[in-house]
Design a protein that fits this description.
Blueprint lengths: L4 H25 L6 H20 L6 H21 L6 H19 L3 H25 L6 H17 L5 H30 L14
Helix pairs in contact: 1-3, 1-6, 2-3, 2-4, 2-5, 4-5, 5-7, 6-7
Length: 207
């Protein structure tokens, strides 16, 4: 498996890049409206995770985190004008919790502890977007999160061995993105199956 680690690493990066393309397309098309706070936190975390993975001796698997850093900040830049959320009181609290996770990474002496702090912050960011996603699943791009889950699975294979410190984050990415994709899919199916209320139009009164 270790001999194939570079292949899996390159594939993971390729999928990570590919999952952003439909998302950016849908943002520019006006159908996807990213949550600003979520993508801001995710962008910062991608940089933090890249540094943490390097500190823990990662090689090819770190390419995914590095690629995600650039791509995620690109989405955040688009969300400033074309997204929603990130300014409310609840969002401010969630951002503060996410900042606490980032601070935990900064002071943690062990890379695995730092990674756990990042996962907590990342999960908070994902939670921030869920009310919008549940209410309006059409405001998110399903394929993006499905491909992101696949990228995480490939990154797990890119680790090339059994190392909890290196496996934890890509495994988390696989699971959380898969769950978001499932929520989008199930909510779209549910809303599409609801009968549309008939509009009753009154006949014009005769003179």
């Amino acid at each position: 498996m270790s001999g194939l680690a570079p292949v899996f690493g390159i594939l993971a990066v390729g999928v990570a890049v590919a999952d952003t393309i439909p998302y950016v397309r849908d943002i520019l098309g006006g159908t996807t409206r990213p949550h600003r706070g979520t993508w801001l936190v995710w962008g910062i975390l991608a940089i933090v995770v890249t540094l943490s993975q390097l500190a823990d001796g990662a090689s090819w698997s770190v390419l995914v985190a590095a690629a995600q850093a650039g791509l995620t900040f690109g989405v955040f830049a688009l969300s400033i004008r074309r997204g929603e959320g990130g300014c409310g009181r609840v969002d401010a609290v969630m951002l503060a919790i996410a900042a606490g996770g980032i601070a935990g990474w900064a002071v943690a002496g062990e890379p695995i502890v730092a990674t756990l702090c990042i996962i907590v912050a990342d999960l908070v960011a994902a939670t921030m977007m869920m009310p919008k996603t549940y209410r309006d699943p059409g405001s998110e791009t399903l394929s993006t999160f499905g491909l992101a889950s696949l990228s995480g699975a490939l990154a797990v294979c890119a680790v090339g061995g059994v190392d909890a410190g290196l496996l934890l984050y890509p495994a988390y990415l696989c699971v959380v993105n898969g769950m978001i994709a499932l929520v989008i899919y199930r909510r779209r199916r549910l809303l599409a199956g609801r009968p549309t209320a008939r509009r009753v139009v009154a006949a014009p009164a005769r003179a």
